Amino acid sequence: MKGNKNKVxxxxxxxSFFYNKQKREKPTLNKISFKIYLNSITAIIGxxxxxxxTLLATINRxxxxxxxxxxxxxxxxxxxxxxxxxxxxxxxxxKKIGLVFQKPAPFPMSIYENIAFAxxxxxxxxxxxxxxxxxxxxxxxxxxxxxxxxxxTSALSLSGGQQQRLCLARCLANEPEIILMDEPTSSLxxxxxxxxxxxxxxxKKKYTIVLVTHSLNQASKLSDYVAFLSKGQxxxxxxxxxxxxxxxxxxxxxxxxERTE
Length: 261
Ligand SMILES: Nc1ncnc2c1ncn2[C@@H]1O[C@H](COP(=O)(O)OP(=O)(O)OP(=O)(O)O)[C@@H](O)[C@H]1O
Ligand SMILES: [Mg+2]
Description:
Oligomer: single chain
Largest sheet: 6 strands, mixed
Helix content: 25-40%
Order of helices and strands: EEEHHEEHEHHHHEHEHEEHH
CATH topology: Rossmann fold
Number of helices: 11
Number of domains: 1
CATH class: Alpha Beta
CATH superfamily: P-loop containing nucleotide triphosphate hydrolases
Number of strands: 10
Bound molecules: adenosine-5'-triphosphate, magnesium ion
Shape: globular
Strand order of the largest sheet: 6-7-8-3-9-10
């Protein structure tokens, strides 16, 4: 989007994360600093266990739901607000920053209810407005035509690719600013994967996307920026064509040349 090109929406500043407060000497993320730009796609790449999913979870504080002894140092700023500051309303934060998981995980309810669920929780009970939200969200993920005649059937009856688009639509119904995606296409067949990839690319007009992927092909095709993590550290961050064509660090070069899809 013109004019938004260099606008920062999220910033990691010397950010460290610990799963276990007691073991502060072992950070899972270690002094990470980089910026996420508005209306861009940033790919997070790196070997298994390097901290990609952890990094995503720290952006909307999702880890706090399951783990109670975590700790952070440094800052993550969303606009100018510190995500870990005492003023942050975590429910609102998670509405503004949505997460889509690797395996499509629709709620075991109808297609309609999957989308209407969050708006209802946030106080929307007008049937017409809910219908509109459902329709708009499904259109945004190119699923409307496929499901408009069976909105009341179970979401679990959809194919894997359709389920993943439904999960994206559910996320969009919250009107997020940032969408976090953790390997969103890795469980899909090639045709569904292509559809979801095209969709991700089109969504950056309206949203900012942080995409964890094991596929360097996907990262180079879709992303504007790449962050390469290794063992919890940010080895390199930069524009996608710079990182893939002329990486600054030997470790990045080794990873991208030795890794096959
Ligand atoms: N709940 C937890 N408690 C302690 N350590 C954890 C926990 N969850 C993950 N870890 C560790 O944190 C590190 C980073 O894990 P993470 O899941 O973020 O890696 P990843 O880059 O997403 O890997 P993958 O590509 O396999 O999904 C790993 O060493 C992992 O074992
Ligand atoms: Mg992961």
